[in-house]
Structure formats: structure tokens, C-alpha cells
């Protein structure tokens, strides 16, 4: 059964998603992230499409692609449309400087590619995702054969790497790209940009979940929405 907090979070997501959709203009090419907040945004966007809005969307996961298919949202890929007008995504955590940690859904590699392909990158979150400083584990998508090497390199940076295991399957969780996911704990991340650069130098790491380039963060609560700009 749903509890009161879950209902409040869902309402906050709906408010934030509705506000974010106001940024969309007819004829735009849009990137769509992955996760529960983006599912809510897709539901709102689908109604806009039904009302005549013309858009083309690039999903960042099989999950979002299926949602778009079910809701009648037209999709394309970065191969057909390498530059996007805007990209929307959720986040696991956002700090006061609008840096974020993403990857709870193991889709952060394509999410980052799509976000970097957009002229404007918008994070859509409920207020529970805000934190004065980032301190959640950082998801890392890795080449499976590089597991031990990546773990060692993460430890050299002061992190504690943990291989994410699959649910309702034996063995590691496998991303849409065929990679494994390692969740690396670094405690409080005082300098996200520095850790971003350090992680980029790890051999065997495909992509990490630190995002330091959001242009806008739309924050929903039970009774209001805030729009934060970098």
C-alpha cells in the first residue's frame, strides 16, 4: 500500500514535470531520461502531443523507449538527430550548486550522452532529492573484464566500490549497453568537478554518474515548484 509520503512525492513530481513541460516548444527535438520522474513527465508530454504538439524525442533507455511507445510519443535516435533542443532527466541527488548524481536506474551513460547533445539540460526532481552536498554512492558503468582494475583505481581515489547485483536474476546487474554497474561511495563530495575529472581517467570505466553541467533544475514540492538556474 502507498503511504502518505509516497503520495506527496508523486504529487511533487507531477508539479515539477508540468512546470518543466512548459519549456517545450512546437517542433523541438527532446532528450528524455530514465526513472520515475521522467515517467510522470512523459505522461504530461503525451497529453500535449495528443493536443497537437509536434516533437521528436530521444529516449535514454529501453524503459523510456517502451513508455514513449505506450503513450504515443514519437521517438528517434541520436544517429538521426545528433543535436537536441532540450533534454530532461531526473536525479538521485542534487547539491546547492546544481551538481547531481545519477545512475540509480543504470542508464547514466546514455543519459549523459543525450544531455551533452542538448542545448539546454533540465533536471526535474522532487525536493527530497536536494542536499547541501553530494554524498550518495556514484554509479559507474564499467567494462565487465575491468572489474578488479576499476575497483583498485576507485580505492586509490578514496572510494569504496561495490558491484551492483541484479534483482530476480543471478549475478551482476547488466545495463542496456551490456556493462556492469559499480556503486562507489566517496562520503561527502566537496568538489564534484574534481572527482568528475579523476573518474574520467579510470581505465575500464565507461561512464560515471556525476553530472556537473545542468542548466536548470525544476524542484517540486507538495504545494509549489521552484526553478533553479545555473
From TrEMBL:
CDD domains: RPI_A (cd01398)
UniProt entry keywords in alphabetical sequence: Isomerase
Annotated Gene Ontology cellular component terms: cytosol
InterPro entries referenced in this protein's UniProt entry, alphabetically: NagB/RpiA_transferase-like (IPR037171), Ribose5P_isomerase_typA_subgr (IPR020672), Ribose5P_isomerase_type_A (IPR004788)
Gene3D superfamilies the UniProt entry points to: 3.30.70.260, 3.40.50.1360
Positions of the catalytic residues: 111
Presence of the UniProt keyword Nuclease in the record: no
Binding site for substrate: 34-37, 89-92, 102-105, 129
Catalysed reaction equations from the record: aldehydo-D-ribose 5-phosphate = D-ribulose 5-phosphate
EC number(s) given by UniProt: 5.3.1.6
Functional pathway: Carbohydrate degradation; pentose phosphate pathway; D-ribose 5-phosphate from D-ribulose 5-phosphate (non-oxidative stage): step 1/1
Keyword Cell inner membrane: no
One of the Pfam families matching this protein, by short name: Rib_5-P_isom_A
SUPFAM superfamilies attached to this UniProt entry: D-ribose-5-phosphate isomerase (RpiA), lid domain (SSF75445), NagB/RpiA/CoA transferase-like (SSF100950)
A molecular function GO annotation: ribose-5-phosphate isomerase activity
Family in the record: Belongs to the ribose 5-phosphate isomerase family.
HAMAP family noted in UniProt: Rib_5P_isom_A
Summary of the function given for this chain in its UniProt record: Catalyzes the reversible conversion of ribose-5-phosphate to ribulose 5-phosphate.
Quaternary data: Homodimer.
Protein name, entry field: Ribose-5-phosphate isomerase A
Lineage: Archaea, Methanobacteriati, Methanobacteriota, Stenosarchaea group, Methanomicrobia
Amino acid at each position: 500500500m502507498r503511504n502518505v509520503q509516497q503520495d506527496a512525492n508523486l504529487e511533487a513530481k507531477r508539479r515539477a514535470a508540468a512546470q518543466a513541460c512548459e519549456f517545450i516548444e512546437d517542433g523541438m527535438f527532446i532528450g528524455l531520461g530514465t526513472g520515475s520522474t521522467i515517467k510522470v513527465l512523459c505522461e504530461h508530454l503525451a497529453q500535449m502531443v495528443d493536443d497537437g504538439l509536434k516533437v521528436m524525442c530521444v529516449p535514454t533507455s529501453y524503459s523510456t523507449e517502451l513508455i514513449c511507445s505506450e503513450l504515443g510519443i514519437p521517438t528517434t535516435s541520436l544517429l538521426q538527430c545528433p543535436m537536441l533542443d532540450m533534454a530532461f532527466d531526473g536525479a538521485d541527488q542534487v547539491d546547492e550548486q546544481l551538481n547531481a548524481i545519477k545512475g540509480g536506474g543504470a542508464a547514466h551513460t546514455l543519459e549523459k550522452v543525450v544531455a551533452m547533445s542538448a542545448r539546454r539540460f533540465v533536471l526535474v526532481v522532487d525536493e527530497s532529492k536536494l542536499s547541501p552536498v553530494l554524498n550518495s554512492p556514484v554509479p559507474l558503468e564499467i567494462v565487465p573484464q575491468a572489474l578488479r582494475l576499476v575497483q583498485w583505481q576507485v580505492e586509490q581515489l578514496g572510494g569504496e566500490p561495490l558491484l551492483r547485483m541484479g534483482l530476480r536474476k543471478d549475478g551482476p546487474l547488466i545495463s542496456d549497453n551490456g556493462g556492469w554497474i559499480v556503486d562507489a561511495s566517496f562520503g561527502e563530495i566537496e568538489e564534484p568537478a574534481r572527482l568528475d575529472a579523476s573518474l574520467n581517467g579510470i581505465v575500464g570505466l565507461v561512464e560515471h554518474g556525476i553530472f556537473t553541467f545542468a542548466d536548470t533544475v525544476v524542484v517540486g514540492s507538495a504545494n509549489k515548484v521552484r526553478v533553479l538556474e545555473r
